[in-house]
Design goal:
By secondary structure, this protein is α/β, with parallel strands linked by helices. The protein contains 8 helices and 7 strands. The protein has one domain: Rossmann fold (3-Layer(aba) Sandwich), CATH 3.40.50.150. 37% of the residues are buried.
Length: 232
Amino acid sequence: MWRHLWFWAIDRELDGYFDRKFGITSSGHRSLGQLGPDAKDCVYYQPVSYGDFRKFLNSIPIRTDEDVFLDFGCGMGRALCLAATYPFRSVIGVEISPELCASARENVELVKSKLRCQDVRIIRVNARDYKVPTDVSVIYLFHPFTGQTLTDVLQNIADSLREAPREIFLLFYGRAEGVTFQIEASNCGWLDMISKTILPTGRIGLVYRNVRWTGKSKSWNIPSQSTANLNA
């Protein structure tokens, strides 16, 4: 535990340095009040750790120029920009805050020449109203919302799978709040947790895949496991 707390403190201290090295501005926090009046069920904005995100994303296979990455609550776009350095066919960010959307678009433009995936889109909309495209195959959430919004988003993902059966990975990153997400994911009945990882900062990374509406596509060759630790 103390090791994780130490690493988290160092990681946050170096956050601005990694921003400058990458070429974007995505550090800092935004309170619920700053996210806007429509941000019901939302959680305050904080960017993902650079190191955590890379280790987390490296834990799943990515099919070059096939997989489509979707970030619910993309904030200032750090995860989007990092995901676009991987061989995704498309990267999509959904964000409710006009200010954060504008920052995300600016950041994408700042590092456009460094991105392997050039198709990066940021959509300003309430996540619960967003229709998940039928080609999305990797969905990422940094504990962006709770309550009815989370329930509705999971339902929208299920609707997308019913419309176009396929296999997806759903990635959840967070702290103790992951317990709440695990309960919600379990209740929906079509998600199977294949790994639970303790990342360097002590945050958890939960990897799910769907067990219904999988279609006939070739399955990813990844073993099911109850726990994992990328620091081991």
